[in-house]
């Protein structure tokens, strides 16, 4: 057979001819003439011989004498056409002059062309070349047709041709074998347009029919996906794409196009769309889908002039549930809450993007839904509310349904929710505004005690915005070097000397110092407390070294750390790094942890405490007495110091309970060998009482306010050394003045 | 027409010069000895045809006769035996048109011409 580029491309290629003639003279002459013209000729003296040769060697074309004794040219041609692989080999029949009968017989027998025997060899050669080229083109077409069929088959695609019924012709509908397969039919089956339309489910059929009529009426291109139930009963989606064909007078006579089974693609697309728009855990619309719906709802509300409500719903203390029962139970709980929340609104799972506009003025109602933003945060979108009372009614349903006991993790759980409500257009012009403001309202419900709903008010917004600004500024505080540590001395009153300092963080924001109470809670909430604390440890170590150099400071700097830092396994390493990089011993850093912080997560904190203790870092319990810790626990903890909470100190001499508590603390500390430090000492009276009760180390405004590092040396020089402070005089009456002076001066 | 078997005609009078020249063109250098090969092949085929003609005449068998005439017609034309080729064509068409008709006269003429051509070819092959 002909190879693809055999002609033209390769001039050295000699097409293989089989020349058949019973006339030996002709055979010889033609063979010679054609060899001369670049053909590779094999001669056969009879039809039988020719058929035999065909099976023995590849042949690109056959030149066949029509008139031969025995099996003549026509017979030979018919026979070779019946041979496998020779259905399309080009055959040129040689006939006599004016032999019209032979010419038509030749074509009937399957010959491709004829040539009247003459000595015009060049003509014959030209004719053969043309035949070969045509055969090659045909073969390529066959191949690409086969490829197309194969490709169509793989793509579950087939072609069709539809002819319109006209004056002179009946209408017709033809599907290629691949097309028939799309509809579950064998290759030789048949399918009428009528049968095809019957495969479309009834309710869809009307839509399809209407669309087909529209397309036909306007003679436009058809491109649509049609759901069908194919012959084996499977529901499939078939994509139909067709172009109109016109006759000379511009009249549309039919359509040709393709049908393709796109079920799998559509399934995948639907899956992807679903994944992109719905929460995997609860199946509810996710943030993206919810925002999309909310935007549509706002558009509709703007046109129709009604209000939209956005309800931000948050499960109260979900983290506690998750931590206690485990994440699997937490997930179960979310799924159940999601199920209940759906029941609180006219939830629509699907919103067809295209149909929204076409469904008329009430279509925005199909946007109504509950979605999950993530974690335990849900949002209900109410696309049309008459007043805030409508929204509050839904919010109340949410609160009520959440309160019902939920059975998860093998036990009944009682959860509550907090709901914040924002209305469009009153509380925000954009989805982002409404989300933020409903969030603000939700937080106000939470801070008002949870299990409640709250409407957004501008008053709340102020706070929210302030907080946001503060948060973003705090993020940059470290890198901008806006944080500073101030230091408050711890005083051994009896000896009238400084025994250490507590470092207190200040934020120098736009030239004013922000007190810790204004940003530490936010830092805790946002997690910024971690980098902040780490910075404080480094800074404290640096300062300890600086003071050591400038005036021989050898005490420790106490740094307050939140309990979550003690949970970090790298805390010990971090402190070691900080201390060694500034060349101070580990004990130059003391760590303070509040009693409540310590007790909140004792089991996770204890290992850190032990390791810190091992490397020489002392631990101090801050705000001692305020927590509900079992005091017995203290015996097992590697701590060095307890600090009596300032509230007891403040009330000393005012309420008898405070002195009782302080006495108890001191007694306990003593029995455990712990140092006791009193905080917030402001008056001489407080100092005297504490001293009398047995507490010798104090901290407070009486001695010094927290001060910048540079001021500490001057303070020592001006206050401690000259023993000029009023409290020192008082302390003197305690008969320790001399000792204190001796010790301080001895430095 | 009568037989004159022993006095071959001048080949130039029997075989067309133009046709022979065309044959020569197929083998310009004569290196392949094409003309010789064609003529000897023709001579053999002609000899066979003379036999076949005798057999096909007694009794007259139209189909073999027609084939014989057809084949000889084209090969004769190829070597320039134009008169013979013409006679063959006449026989061929007459047999096809009226298979049962008496064509003895025509066949006699054909036989005589075959004889002449054979002589001329032999003469050329001897050159």
Describe the protein in words.
- The complex is a heterodimer of chains A (747) and B (127).
- Chain A has 28 helices and 27 strands.
- In chain A, the strands form five sheets. In chain A, strands 18-19-21-22-23-24-25-26 form an eight-stranded mixed beta barrel, surrounded by six helices. Chain A has a five-stranded parallel β-sheet with strand order 2-1-3-4-5, sandwiched between helices. In chain A, strands 7-6-10-9-8 form a five-stranded antiparallel β-sheet, with helices on both faces.
- The longest helix of chain A is centred in the first third of the chain and has 34 residues, at 121-154.
- Chain A has four domains: 16-150, Response regulator (Rossmann fold, 3-Layer(aba) Sandwich), CATH 3.40.50; 155-267, PAS domain (Beta-Lactamase); 278-456, Reverse transcriptase/Diguanylate cyclase domain (Alpha-Beta Plaits, 2-Layer Sandwich); 478-645 and 676-745, EAL domain (TIM Barrel, Alpha-Beta Barrel).
- Chain A is elongated.
- Chain A has 747 residues and is an alpha/beta fold.
- Chain B is mainly alpha-helical.
- Chain B contains six helices and no strands.
- In chain B, helix 3 (34-57) packs antiparallel against helix 4 (62-79), helix 3 (34-57) runs antiparallel to helix 6 (104-126) and helix 4 packs antiparallel against helix 5.
- The longest helix of chain B is centred in the middle third of the chain and has 24 residues, at 34-57.
- Chain B is elongated.
Notable characteristics:
heterodimer, A: 747 residues, alpha/beta, Rossmann fold, Beta-Lactamase, Alpha-Beta Plaits, five-stranded parallel sheet, 27 strands, elongated, disordered N terminus, B: 127 residues, mainly alpha, 0% strand
């Amino acid at each position: 057979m002909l190879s693809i580029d055999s002609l033209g491309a390769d001039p050295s290629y000699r097409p293989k001819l089989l020349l058949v003639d019973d006339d030996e003279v002709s055979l010889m002459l033609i063979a010679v003439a054609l060899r001369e013209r670049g053909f590779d000729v094999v001669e056969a003296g009879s039809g039988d011989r020719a058929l035999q040769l065909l099976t023995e060697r590849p042949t690109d074309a056959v030149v066949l004498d029509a008139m031969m004794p025995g099996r003549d040219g026509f017979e030979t041609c018919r026979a070779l056409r019946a041979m496998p692989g020779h259905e399309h080999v080009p055959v040129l029949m040689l006939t006599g002059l004016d032999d019209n009968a032979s010419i038509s017989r030749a074509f009937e027998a399957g010959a491709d062309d004829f040539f009247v025997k003459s000595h015009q060899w060049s003509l014959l050669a030209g004719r053969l070349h043309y035949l070969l080229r045509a055969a090659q083109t045909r073969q390529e077409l066959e191949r690409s047709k086969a490829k197309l069929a194969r490709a169509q088959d793989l793509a579950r695609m087939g072609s069709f041709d539809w002819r319109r019924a006209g004056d002179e012709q009946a209408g017709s509908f033809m599907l290629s074998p691949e097309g028939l397969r799309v509809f579950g039919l064998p290759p030789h089956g048949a399918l009428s347009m009528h049968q095809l339309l019957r495969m479309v489910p009834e309710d869809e059929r009307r839509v399809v029919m209407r669309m087909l009529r529209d397309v036909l009426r306007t003679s436009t291109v058809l491109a649509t996906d049609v759901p069908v139930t194919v012959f084996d009963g499977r529901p499939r989606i078939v994509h139909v794409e067709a172009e109109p064909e016109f006759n000379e007078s511009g009249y549309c006579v039919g359509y040709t196009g393709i049908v393709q089974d796109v079920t799998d693609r559509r399934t995948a697309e639907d899956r992807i769309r679903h994944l992109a728009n719905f929460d995997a855990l609860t199946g509810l619309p996710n943030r993206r889908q919810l925002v999309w719906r909310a935007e549509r709802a706002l558009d509709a509300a703007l046109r129709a002039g009604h209000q939209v409500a956005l309800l931000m719903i948050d499960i109260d203390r979900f983290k506690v549930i998750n931590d206690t029962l485990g994440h699997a139970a937490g997930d179960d709980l979310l799924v159940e809450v999601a199920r209940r929340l759906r029941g609180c609104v006219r939830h629509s799972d699907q919103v067809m993007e295209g149909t929204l506009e076409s469904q008329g003025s009430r279509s925005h109602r199909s946007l109504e839904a509950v979605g999950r933003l993530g974690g335990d945060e849900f949002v209900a979108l109410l696309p049309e509310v008459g007043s805030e009372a409508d929204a509050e009614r839904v919010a109340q349903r949410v609160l009520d349904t959440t309160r019902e006991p939920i059975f998860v993790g093998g036990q009944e759980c009682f959860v509550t929710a907090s709901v914040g409500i924002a209305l469009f257009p009153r509380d925000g012009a954009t989805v982002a505004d409404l989300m933020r403001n409903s969030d603000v309202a939700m937080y106000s419900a939470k801070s008002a005690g949870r299990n409640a709903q709250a409407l957004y008010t501008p008053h709340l917004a102020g706070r929210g915005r302030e907080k946001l600004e503060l948060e973003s500024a705090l993020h940059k505080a470290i890198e901008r070097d806006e944080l500073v540590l101030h230091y408050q001395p711890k005083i051994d009153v009896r000896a009238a000397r400084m025994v250490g300092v507590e470092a207190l963080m200040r934020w120098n924001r736009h030239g004013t110092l922000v007190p810790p109470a204004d940003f530490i809670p936010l830092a805790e909430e946002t997690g910024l407390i971690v980098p902040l604390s780490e910075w404080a440890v480094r800074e404290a170590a640096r300062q300890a070294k600086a003071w050591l150099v400038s005036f021989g400071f050898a005490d420790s700097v106490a740094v307050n750390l939140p309990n979550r830092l003690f949970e970090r396994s790298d805390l010990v390493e971090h402190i070691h790094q900080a201390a060694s990089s500034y060349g101070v011993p580990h004990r130059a850093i003391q760590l303070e942890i509040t009693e409540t912080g310590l007790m909140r997560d004792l089991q996770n904190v204890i290992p850190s405490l032990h390791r810190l203790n091992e490397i020489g870092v002392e631990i101090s319990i801050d705000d001692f007495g305020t927590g509900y810790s079992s005091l017995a626990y203290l015996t097992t903890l590697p701590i060095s110091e307890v600090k009596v909470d300032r509230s007891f100190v403040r009330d000393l001499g005012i309420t008898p309970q405070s002195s009782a508590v302080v006495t108890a603390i001191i007694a306990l500390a003593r029995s455990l060998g712990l140092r006791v430090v009193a905080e917030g000492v402001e008056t001489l009276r407080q100092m005297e009482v504490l001293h009398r009760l047995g507490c010798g180390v104090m901290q407070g405004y009486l001695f010094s306010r927290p001060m910048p590092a540079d001021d500490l040396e001057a303070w020592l020089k001006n206050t401690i050394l000259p023993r000029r402070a009023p409290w020192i005089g008082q302390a003197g009456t305690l008969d320790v003045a001399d000792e204190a002076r001796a010790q301080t001066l001895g430095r | 027409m009568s037989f004159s078997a022993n006095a071959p005609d001048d080949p130039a009078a029997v075989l067309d010069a133009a046709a022979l020249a065309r044959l020569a063109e197929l083998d310009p250098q004569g290196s392949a000895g094409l003309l010789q090969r064609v003529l000897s092949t023709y001579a053999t085929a002609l000899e066979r045809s003379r036999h076949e003609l005798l057999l096909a005449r007694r009794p007259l068998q139209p189909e073999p006769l027609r084939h014989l005439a057809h084949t000889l017609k084209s090969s004769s034309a190829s070597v320039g035996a134009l008169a013979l080729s013409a006679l063959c064509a006449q026989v061929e068409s007459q047999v096809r048109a009226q298979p049962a008709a008496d064509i003895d006269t025509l066949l006699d003429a054909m036989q005589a011409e075959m004889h002449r051509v054979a002589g001329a070819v032999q003469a050329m092959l001897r050159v």
